[in-house]
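Researcher: I'm preparing a figure for a lab meeting and need a structural model of a single chain. I don't have an experimental structure, so a prediction will have to do for now. The sequence is pasted below. Please return the structure as tokens so I can convert it later.
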Amino acid sequence: MIKQLFELRKGPTPWGKAFCAGLCAGLPVLIGILMGNFELGLLGGIGGFTYLYVFNETYVSRMKKIFLVAVTISFLVGLGTIVAPYHWLVILIIGLIGFMATFIFGVLKVPGPAAIFFILSFTITTSMPINPSQAPLRFLVVLASGLFAWALSMVGWVKNPHKSEIKAVEDVYLSLGGFCGAIGSEDMNNKRQMVIEALRRGEETLSSGYVSKKNKMEFNRLVLLNQYADDLFIELIEVSFYSSSKVPQEITDRIRELYKNIRLKDGEVDKIDLKRLSKESAGEYTKLLDSIYDIEKLMNMHLDGIESEVSKAVRPSRRMKLIKALDMDFIVFVNSVRYGVVLSISAIVAFCFPFTRPYWIPLSCAAVMFGTTIMSTFNRAVLRCFGTIVGVLIATCILSLHPAGIIVAIINMILTMITELVVVRNYALVAMFITPNALILAEAATKNSNPSQFITGRVTDIIVGSMIGLIGTYIIGRKSASSRLPGLITKLIRSQSRAIVRLEANKKNNNIQDIQWIKEKMEINLGNLKLAYNTALGEIPRNQEKLEFMWPAIASLEHISYLIGKNIEGREYIRLSDQELAQILMVLEKIATAVEQKHVLKDIRTLDIDDIPKICKEVNNLQEILSMKNMFI
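Model: Understood. Here is the structure written out token by token.
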């Protein structure tokens, strides 16, 4: 376990993001020093936290997100300045910030550190001189540095406006190659799951992309490539259903060749040339190869020939997602409430006892609870405490050299860059470099000749905050996710039944908006189930065997949702007789009832309906999984 805690994760090193994060954090401090107002420079550094919310989203999403983050951080600094004298109001607001940020980031699946830097921006004002009249000035200073971070985050748009969209489509084709190579093997279902997730991420990314006149054809090409990937996946599913042998390596290699050529700028200048297989070699894979060659043709097409109007994926409305999530069965809502309550408790402890820097306690509590499970919270608590102790030793060495002025700003930049570089490796390393950065800035701001009080206070506050977060998570959330799984599975199955009913009815009514609404509800229920399952894996205690046995059922349900969604997006209706509709609804309700009552499924009824063969095949597979063993006791 100790080895796993301190294991260095593999992955790309974010050199560019690290440099920009260091620049956003250190430049305001440097400007403040040059202007002879170091305290104002430190205040401006708070706005630099805005850049830490930059991730691999599309530029149009980033433009909105980072701007809102900059404004929110600035507003919280101003609000904190006003309410700083009223500790009970501060405690209440800390809980609200934790709840709202965790809820919004979780429901909308916004990548980033969520509430952590919002909490820091608000609580740090409690260590500043109490002066509510300074609120407008502090707001403007932090907003200025936040807008600088926003502008810096958008620089790449000029050179490569569709960087995130290209990466999303590449991930789709990479996963398709993996699935094709895994057909006929034990790993096939896992690889299929990866394709579904990649396709969903691709649709979400492309639906939030920006289409400018200059890059319209390039963007449309990416949208079409993603749509063609859907067709290719359907053909691969067909092969996996009716063939137990592995797909020839030549076909897998051709899909991987498509992945390597996603970044082609113009089909007329840069061409991809896939070797054709003979009819004898193609055999039963003719339709699959036709899909591959259609994608090759699209890649080789001149950009001017790309279809000018491409239907973009329809996403569930953010408003509906947020309203739907206000439910105690929604694990994000439960986690958000827990997060806010425990943060308020940590703030009560911080202000009721004479700690050196009270805001370090709720901040440490927020940081360790950033993990979604008890195990991840425990890991972060251990790593944060260990990293803090090592960071204190680093800070002691640096402070012994008595840095001042511009040297402090340079050290701040370097430590921030290193922090951003190691954040993808191990959380202990993050604490090692955040701690000396905070201590050096605190000592420089107060000009205290005895920095040992900051060092002792930092260690004490972080240990106290981490313990509160760990204990609160264990008491409130140790079994909150696993107990909800049967109800969430039942809700998803019944939403799938409603979607099938509406699809069948739509052959006459042609009510597209109504059927899209049902699809959105189904996707929200699926996302809720997967999040609850992932959270349950980290609970203490947990039945690992039953949770692992449950995964094939969840994967099967996701595949059924995907197939129903493709019918909604493509045909917008299905043709079933009254008998066929009654048959599939009866089977799905029987499955839902068995799960709801936590019983093993008995009396399997095999479905075979001509208009929806793939859905029937997957429902049959789900029945087999649920008939093997009771996974809910």
